Amino acid sequence: MAKDNLPIYKITIDPEYSENGEDLGIEQIAFTSTPAIKVMGHAFNSQVKQMIFKDNVKYRIVAPALIPMEIYRKDDEDDKEYYVSFSKEEIEKIHSKFMKDMSNKDLFNLEHDTTETVPAYVLEAWIVDNPTKDKAYSSFGIEVPTGTLMVTAQVTDVEYYNHLVDNDQVGFSIEGYLGMKLKQQLNNINMNRKTKMNALPDGE
To answer: Cα–Cα distance between 178 and 171 in angstroms, integer?
Structure first.
């Protein structure tokens, strides 16, 4: 539940909200020990380890990349507090564009360090339609809301896979240019904002 009196910005890849002509969408996915789903203030906070599946034989990692939710953010520069909102409809658009534009080259990095690429590729990505019947739950034991974007990463280096697992860096956090449009109006102010979301915050 969002805090009272804080604005909510709806995440969008509508080109209208690209201030400088950037191509909105996912650019990379970071393997991280602190995925944004840990800081939602919802029940996911205590279930994050249950939302990740590791296959130690095939060296695959399955986890949600985007979940329909509202996430609290605080800008360091102006100390402004607000929420960003991911709708299941927009996640579906992001997923579709991601799959269309996807290139296996340097798709994954480690902890949002673009110089630290991970030897992995997207084996599959899908949108959850039915949380209790979807293979996210039936095959991997991960229960997430309708509209969640799930990703299976195939790590191609066994030693690197073991490094990720040993350091609990098996969550996913997206990177890319994403537009934001004001979802609710406060004090009769209506404004549009856009940000480069290198990483969703870890709740500090």
So the answer is: 20
> Nearest-CA neighbor of 145 among 84, 61, 65, 88?
88
Asked if 183 and 169 count as a contact pair (C-beta separation under 8 A), the reply is no
Sign of CA dihedral 119, 103, 128, 9: positive
Please report, for residues 3, 73, 174, 177, the alpha-carbon distance to residue 147 in angstroms, rounded to integers and kept in the order given. Answer: 24, 22, 16, 20
The letter for the amino acid at 166 is: D
Amino acid occupying residue 92 = E
- What is the tens place of the pLDDT at every residue in 113-155? 999 999 999 999 999 999 999 999 999 999 899 999 999 999 9
Residue 189 forms beta bridges with which residues?
186
Tokens representing 83 are 């929420």
The two tokens of residue 41 are 């203030």
Name the residue type at position 97: K
Give the pLDDT confidence of 37-75 residue by residue, as tens digits: 543 333 334 455 677 889 999 999 999 999 998 888 887
Helix (H) or strand (E) holding 85: strand 81-86
DSSP annotation of 36 reads G
Strand partners, 120: 155
